[in-house]
Structures are given as structure tokens and as C-alpha cells.
Input
Amino acid sequence: MAKKSKGPFKPETRLVTAGRDTQGQHGFVNPAVYHASTVLYPTAEDQIAHRARYQYGRRGTPTTEAMENALRELEGEQCAGVALLPSGLAAIATALMSVAGSGDHILVTDSVYRPTRTFCDSVFKRMGVETTYYDPLIGKDIARLFKPNTRAVFVEAPGSQSFEMQDIPAIAEVAHTKKAVVLMDNTWATPLYFRAFEKGVDLSIQAGTKYIGGHSDVMFGTVSANAATATALKTTVGNMGICVGPDDVYLALRGFRTMGVRLARHYESGLQIARWLEKRPEVLRVMHPALESDPGHAIWKRDFTGACGLFSIVLKPAPDKAVHAFMNELALFGMGFSWGGFESLVIAFDCAEYRTATKWSPGGPTLRFHIGLEDTGDLIADLERGFAALAAAK
Ligand SMILES: Cc1ncc(COP(=O)(O)O)c(C=O)c1O
Output
């Protein structure tokens, strides 16, 4: 039998206890994986009245419910509803669809994850939603970009790849005065390190593919809504018929239970390597808001309680072949998109071609690192070999 909750518990404890119904699972610690579409009603009366705890596979099973309840408890009291989606991008698109439609205008940070931008410039444009991109450092000056039909502001902090910090409480205050809602891509910090609802966010999105899953083996996304947005979110997800396969929900819930220890290690190792890189003569700048040297550090310190393992660097000008030699030499850093898994990664990137509200000119080649759970001494030794290869290829 499940023991009685003696909470309120800290978020790290909630990761372990939230959404558990041991009694309902015959005493087993984890929920069963329900592969299900049809739900049978015992009588005609029940069927006609839709009288059953579960109605249909798409609309929820004990497996999806366990994940939803767990995330809702982690988010805290202001969370009024949670939706599970088949990817982070699906979560972003669905959240946006739940708050804006034909004839509306939205404001989106210029530092947003690029496929979010593509969604706005393609599907939303076709639907008649106008998007204005804004400088992520705009703060309360965002007020001047509002139009009478502005329905939503989409924030992401730190910025995708470029790591600008945003003053989310200031932006949210303006948005709410203008009767618009605030959506946030909170994948980097997760609800453990950024309490989105307490900072004025109405819809908080996570690409669960990253730290919730944590093992690079699941595509998954979540949207958490406050009381102002929960009904619209639920209706949109329900009407569009979106649901996640039960095995992926199970993998996500399994990852969720250990996210606290993994994230703490990613944070510690990431910062250690960022500090090491900052001292390297080949490096012009490290973009990591937890570093005192970062322009966004004051905001990070005020609003966040931690960081993950993802950050970027600007190298001093070097020919492409030297940068490629550096990347090719690394044995412990795979070259792949995505992040949040147990392994270290590196990618080269360039934001210049798609930014519209700000100019991207970092002063040298840019690389994004994800610091995994490996020993940091081994990672540093690997990076040293990379820098030797870079010097040799110049
Ligand atoms: C910040 C951010 N948000 C959203 C996504 C999209 O997640 P998914 O790949 O699960 O669609 C990503 C993926 O890289 C991301 O980096």
C-alpha cells in the first residue's frame, strides 16, 4: 500500500515520490505499460454515460496518467494541467496553437530554438498568425512591440546555442498587463532549476527528449499549464488527437526519477569544463550564464538555481580545417544534434543566417558542447588532444 504523503517535499524528493500509485499497481514500484486503444464498459448504461475512469487509449491510460501526475507535482501548486507530446517540437507547436490563431500576433525571441522559428514562419504564417522576433535582451522594453492583437510572448532562456539570458519576470509583467500569455521553452533549466510559473510563465515547455529521458533513446515533450491556459491546452491536444506511445511514456517516467542526480552532475561537470575552457588561449569567450564573466550572469543568479551541461564557446579566428581537426580528434564528444543524454557532444553552429532582430557576429568559430556524465579529467584530456590537433592543422 502506498504510504501517506507527509509533504510538502523539495523538488528532488518529488522526482522520486510524485505520481506514484503503488496500490493501484499491485504493489509494484512502477506503473505497467498499457498498450491500449479500446476501453470496455461493463454495461450499456455505463457506455452511454461514458462512466469509466479511462475512456479511450488516446485520452489517457494509467501509464500516461502517472507521468502527467509526476510532472504536475514537480511543477508545483500553480500547475493546473500537463500535456504529453511525442517530441519537444510537438510540445512547442501544440502550446503555440493553444494560445494563438488566425488574425493574432505573437512575439518570439530571436534566440529561439530554430525549428520553433520555422514553425512560426511556416505553419503559423499559413494559419494567419503574424510573428515578430525580438532581441532577447529587450526586457521590459518589449512593451513597444505589442499590437492590439498580440496574444502571446515566447521566451527561451538561455537562448538556443547562443545562451543569452532573458529577463523573464520583466517580460511577463508587461505581457500580462497587455493581456497576453507567456510561453517558455524551459528545456535547459527544467523545473528543477527554473520555477517557470513563479517567474510569470503561463505555459512551460520541455523537450523531454533531453533531460527527462536522459539516455538519448526517447522522443518526448511536455507542456505544463497554469490555471489561465490549462483548458485551452487540454482542448487543443484533445482535438488534434495527439498522444505518445506507451513505451516512450514509460521511458520518460523512468528517466524522470533520476533526473535530479543526473542534472546535478551535468551542472557541476559542465561548469568545471566551462571554467577550464575559459582559460584556454584558443578560446575567445565561453557562453555559459553560470560563469561570472557571462553577460547574463546576474539574471541567472537572480532567477535560476542551477544549470545543465549545455553551453557554447567562441574560438579565436581559425580556419575551418583547424576547427574540423579539433572536432574530429575528440574521442569522448560525439557529433550529434540534441543533448541531455548521458554522453558528451559537440556541434559547430552559426546563427547568422537566420537571426532577424539581432546580428550574430561572435568574432570566431562557434561550438556547442554538451557535458555528459563521464569523468571530467578524461573529458579535459580529450579536449587537450583536440586543441593540439587544432594547432597542428592551422
Ligand atoms: C531548446 C530545445 N527545445 C526544443 C527542442 C526540440 O525537441 P525535440 O527534438 O524533442 O523535438 C530542442 C531539440 O534539440 C531544443 O534544443
